[in-house]
User: Which sequence fits this backbone?
């Protein structure tokens, strides 16, 4: 039997769901391509960066996760990076120059950091998208406390103990809450010359409130809970510069400067460079963030064999008030992956495809110990809003449930329980870079 060749680029939430759905069909032969060998549960990536859990607890080898699908003999997994594609010839070019042919393509390449035209800031303010990012952030956080301990200069010590998070969305508030707990509890008895509790955790947001996607009441509750944890909130401020010594910003029309050795970026995302490749080869329209504007069924205009899903897709969903942009969150990516697979199989059967309709079940954000906000949209109950300790428990068990694999669920639950009762974070180990051996003089 001749099977249709399908390529899926990216093993995030959307790509994983698409592959799982397609691997059950006898009509297709699937090749999954990803730059890494692991699937990452990104909602908990900040906990790797703040040493609450170890990296293997929020990730898993792709080949192990999809081992049952591979045993059916219709799935190939390649660790590779797609550099260019030819929509006319229906081929992909990998980083080693080799090419791969496809008949249908699902692109789930995700997103990267956006510095709003100031890419030079990335050297001083890393974001969180990959495990490598998390390791970098962890090293910077731990290194800042270590540098404060060894310096004799009071101004330098103060700068080392200033931590700035730019962006008041879920990632920003979660980082701020975790850093406050590290400073106030985890490290308070581990240094001789500094008091870690004197650290300033500063959260900067350009809009008037944090968690702008949440209801105003929940946003206000989040702000109160963050302040209670010791986080300084600066809303309505605009960052104008970032360098190795600190952050320049304007607040209430006044230019200001904050000396800080650790600046973390959580303010924006940009689409994968594959979006530009699709625009060049397939004529795909892009939005301002570089995301691909897809049709209602997630395919490209003029190229029904190509579908784009997840953070790379600028998709809309119908509502009573008209089309509404689909948020770049994991539930949306999963739903897109399942529909893309189903529509692909419908095309092979000669059936009409179906439009994407996003089922929005709400949003969650944790702010630290016993602090969180939850807004749910339940079909039978309607809107449900709550915050504080009940919301924190709901957030905790929801994330445990959606983790990939029983082992990861068990390990994270144990780590969280231990951290809750002891305030300890045993994932604080930072690898030391090994310098290349010196050449002997000739």
Assistant:
């Amino acid at each position: 039997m001749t099977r249709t060749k399908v390529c899926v680029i990216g093993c995030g939430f959307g790509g994983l769901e698409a592959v799982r759905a397609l691997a059950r069909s006898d009509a297709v032969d699937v090749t999954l391509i990803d730059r890494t060998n692991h699937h990452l549960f990104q909602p908990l990536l900040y906990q790797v960066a703040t040493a609450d859990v170890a990296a293997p607890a929020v990730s898993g080898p792709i080949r192990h996760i999809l081992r049952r699908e591979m045993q059916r003999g219709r799935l190939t997994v390649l660790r590779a990076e797609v550099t260019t594609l030819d929509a006319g010839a229906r081929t992909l070019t990998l980083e080693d120059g080799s090419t791969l042919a496809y008949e249908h393509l699902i692109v789930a390449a995700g997103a990267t950091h956006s510095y709003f035209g100031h890419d030079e800031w990335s050297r001083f303010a890393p974001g969180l998208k990959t495990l490598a990012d998390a390791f970098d952030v962890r090293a910077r956080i731990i290194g800042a406390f270590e540098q404060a301990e060894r310096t004799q200069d009071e101004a330098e010590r103060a700068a080392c103990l200033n931590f700035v998070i730019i962006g008041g969305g879920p990632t920003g508030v979660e980082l701020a809450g975790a850093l406050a707990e590290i400073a106030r509890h985890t490290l308070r008895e581990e240094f001789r010359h500094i008091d870690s509790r004197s650290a300033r955790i500063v959260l900067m947001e350009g809009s008037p409130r944090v968690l702008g996607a949440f209801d105003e009441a929940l946003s206000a509750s989040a702000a109160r809970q963050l302040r209670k944890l010791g986080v300084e909130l600066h809303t309505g401020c605009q960052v104008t510069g970032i360098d190795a010594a600190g952050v320049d910003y304007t607040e209430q029309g006044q230019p200001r400067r904050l000396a800080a050795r650790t600046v973390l970026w959580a303010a924006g995302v940009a689409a994968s460079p594959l979006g530009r490749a699709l625009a060049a080869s397939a004529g795909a329209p892009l939005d301002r963030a570089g995301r691909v504007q897809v049709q209602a069924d997630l395919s490209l205009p003029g190229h029904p064999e190509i579908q784009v899903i997840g953070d790379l897709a600028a998709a809309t969903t119908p509502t009573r008030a008209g089309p509404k942009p689909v948020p770049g969150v994991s539930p949306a990516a999963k739903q897109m992956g399942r529909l893309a697979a189903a529509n692909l199989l419908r095309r092979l059967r000669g059936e009409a495809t179906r439009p994407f309709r996003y089922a929005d079940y709400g949003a969650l954000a944790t702010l630290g110990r016993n602090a969180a906000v939850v807004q749910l949209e339940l079909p039978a109950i309607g809107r449900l809003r709550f915050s504080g300790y009940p919301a924190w428990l709901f957030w905790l068990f929801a994330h445990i449930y959606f983790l990939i694999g029983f082992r990861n669920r068990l390990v994270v639950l144990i780590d969280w329980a231990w951290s809750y009762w002891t305030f300890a974070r045993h994932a604080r180990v930072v690898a030391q870079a090994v310098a290349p051996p010196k050449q002997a003089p000739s």
Observations:
- The CA atoms of residues 149 and 192 lie 7 Å apart.
- The first strand starts at residue 4 and ends at 9.
